[in-house]
Design goal:
This protein has 73 residues and is of the alpha+beta class. Helices cover 22% and strands 25% of the residues. It has a four-stranded antiparallel sheet. Strand 3 and strand 4 form a beta hairpin. The radius of gyration is 12 Å and the shape is globular. The termini are far apart.
């Protein structure tokens, strides 16, 4: 999953979801929309934003998604 180059210009990875909450300011700073984010999450088989622990848009435009289901042993 990548952000279209015509939309995205960033030099550092940027958080867009933390603890199931969307960081709308960062999303807006990246010129991305909630519709775009929902579509990307759907493609990654994520059914609910509240299931996400952390998501960021990487400096290369890739989307990193970490869900709430991680276990520490």
């Amino acid at each position: 999953m990548f952000v279209p180059e015509t939309v995205y210009q960033n030099t550092i990875p940027t958080e867009v979801i933390s603890d199931g909450r969307v960081n709308k300011a960062n999303l807006n700073d990246l010129n991305l929309t909630m519709d775009w984010l929902r579509q990307q999450l759907k493609q990654a088989s994520v059914t609910s934003i509240s299931d996400i622990f952390y998501t960021e848009v990487g400096k290369d435009g890739s989307l990193y998604i970490d869900d709430q289901q991680d276990f520490v042993h």
